[in-house]
Structures are given as C-alpha cells and as structure tokens.
Design goal:
It is a single chain. The chain is α+β, with helices and mostly antiparallel strands. The protein folds into four domains: about 90 residues, conserved putative lor/sdh protein from methanococcus maripaludis s2 fold (Beta Barrel); about 100 residues, Elongation Factor Tu (Ef-tu), domain 3 (Beta Barrel); about 70 residues, OB fold (Dihydrolipoamide Acetyltransferase, E2P), CATH 2.40.50; about 100 residues, Helix Hairpins, CATH 1.10.287. About 35% of the residues lie in helices and about 30% in strands. It is built from five helices and 23 strands.
Amino acid sequence: MQSWTPKTWTKGLLRGLAVAVPIAAGLLAIAVSGSLKAAPGAKAAQAQVPAVRVVRVAATEFRPRVSGYGAVAPAREWRAVARVDGTIIETSPLLASGQIAPAGTELLRLDDTDILLSLAQIDAQLAALDVRDETLTASLSISRADLDISQSDLKRQEDLLQQGTIAQAARDQAARQELAARAKLTEIENQLSLNAAERAVLQAQRASAARSLDFTRITAPFDIRIAAVQADLGQFVTRGSALLGADGTEAAEVSAQFSMGDMGPLVRALGEGSNVLDLTAQVRLSQAGHDITWPARVVRVSDAIDARTQATGIVVRVDQPQAQAVPGTRPPLRRDMFVTVELSAPTRPALVVPDRAVQGGRALIVTAEDRLEPRAVRIAFARDGIAVIAEGLAEGDLLVVTDPAVAVPGMTVRPVEDTALQADIARRALGQDDAQ
C-alpha cells in the first residue's frame, strides 16, 4: 500500500481538477447555448408582424385650386402718333425708356408757328367780315326805308292815274323806282347771307387749326411707363409718324392657360349659380429661391380653346402693381414676365389624403383587428401630392401610406401613425406649402 505523502496528495488533486474543469466547462456551454437559442426565437416571432406607416383619415379644411401659366401684359397700352407735321422743339426729362410719367405730363411739343399764323389769318378774315356786315346792315336799313317810300309813291301815282290827273308815264316811272329800291334791298340781304356762309367756313377752319394746335403738345393720357421712344429733340416729324410707346401702370393682366379637366371640378366647388369670375386669383413669380405673390381677380375668359393642348385662357388683373413694388423684395409686374396664376375656391371640409396612398383607384387600410384591408376609392380632386376622397374612405380609417414588404389582404400589421405627414397634409390642403 502506497502511503499518502503531501507530494502524492498534491498530484492527485491536480489530476482531479484536470478532469473536472473540462466537464464543468462543457456543461456551462450547453446551458448557455440553450439560452441563446431561445432569445432569437422570440425576436423572430415578433418580427413576423411588420410595421406600416398610416395616417388617420379626418375632415380637413381644403381649398380647391389649380395653377396656370402666362405672361404679364399691361391692362392698357398707349402709342403716340404725330397728327400734324412739325419739328420737335421741346421734350420732357421723363421722355426715356423705363421712366414713369403721371397722367397729364407733357412729354414733347412740336413747333406751332405755322398753325398760329393760320389762326391769325383766319381771325383777320373774320374781323373783315364783321366790318362788312356792319356796313351792309346800315345800308340795309336805308334800303328798306327807300323801298317803303318808293312803294308809297307808286300807290299814290296809281291813285292819281285812276282819277285821270296824271299820265301813264308818270305811274310807270314810280313803278321803276320801286323795283330799283326792291332790287337794292335784295342785293344787300344776299350779301349778308353770303357773309354768313363765309363766316361759317372760316370758323370751321379756325376750329380745325385750333385742334391742330392741341396736337402739337403730346401729353400722357393716364399714368404710364415709357416703353420706347422713336422721336427726339429737333427731329421733323410728319403726320402719322410714331413718337413713343408706353404701358399703363394702373393695372397688369395675365392671360394664363388652364386645363379644362382641372377647371371643371374647381368651378363645381363654388356651388350652383357661380362661375369662373367668382374664383379667387393670385399671381406668383418664382425668383431667387422664393415666391412673390400679388392678389388678383378674374376679369374675363377667352372664347378660344387651344387646339393642341385643349386649354382655355383665363385673364386675371392685378391692380396698382407699381404701388405694390418694394425695392429689393417685390419687383413691379412688367410686360412679358412669365408667372404662375393660381385660381382657388373657398375652403371647405374634405377628406384629404396623400395621393400616393391611392393607386389605380384602390387603397389599403388597417382594420380594428390590425389587418390589411383593400378599399375601392374614388378621387374627386388631386393636386400638389394630395387627393380629396369622394368615396371609399371614412373619417377614422387608418390609411396605409407606405406599402408593407408583402401586402396580403388579411395579414396582421402594426400601424404607426405618421403625425408629421398628417400635419403636412393639412398645410398642403390649404396651400400653405408654397413660400409666400
């Protein structure tokens, strides 16, 4: 029998540990592997229910609107044309392209010397006629008195002839004197009539010359912005020559093209008894990364339809665009600016959703049991990424706005409401997504 010494006892302990430690490590590995295997199983089960983003369908204040495009033109244009011949002897400092001239501003003046001479000559002729008329009028009184005397003498001679106290020759002499007096009176009366006719002619000539005198001064008929100048100081112009062109500043107009398919739902949104003229209009200019807007009003509708695009022209008017200009911020509306015209109807409650959530007239909703359910949907109006629902959805429905990996009707999903998208829909429904 071997005796146990401290040395042999130590060797035995070491051999035991060499066997026990590997066994213990193996058991621990088995236990840990079992626990690791159970955890992924739970996560996999949880991942089988996919999450989908949804918005809750609700009545939202919606402003129906459509956009068209067109170029700015002045509501009124003016072209100054020479109506008399003459040399330009004076021009205004405002007679330059781009300058603004108030109504009544004298822009240029033609030499009126010849017209003034004509007026002076006509006035002299009229004064001579007045003198002639005065003379003839005095002679007329004398002639009438002479005729009265001659007629009285003729009657007396006829009475004496009947009594047999005078010869026939004396009566005939009195008759000849009466006829001479009558002829003299008629001649004076005819001369006065001719003078009246000549006076009428001279007065017409004077009125024409005076009117021509007015044409020597070219004044702005209303508030204008000078567009082009074709005449200058010292230039001789003839009747019919173009002098300058200008645009009225009191209003600007835009004839914008709109799709007839878009205009129909918009006008219907106004209700019965309304028409296009009742729509609210706004003109927008995109410039330097931001939008500038002007309030406008619809003034008329074009009677022609574009044969290629089947679009109709609608003309809107912006009043006092010059007064609304702010240097560095809001430029004045000027000719040929290409702008957007937005027409809108009054706001009203509507079911507004993202248009991408409705494809081919169908949408997906999440039921109360968290299952996907397809719905047939009809859109009444769509614009700017949103759609107004006419049929198929109701308030409170959870509308899927992103497709799940596998969209199978009846599958279970986990809805996650997208509140940011919901707020964006509300802004777009009122048109507040556009920069002002």
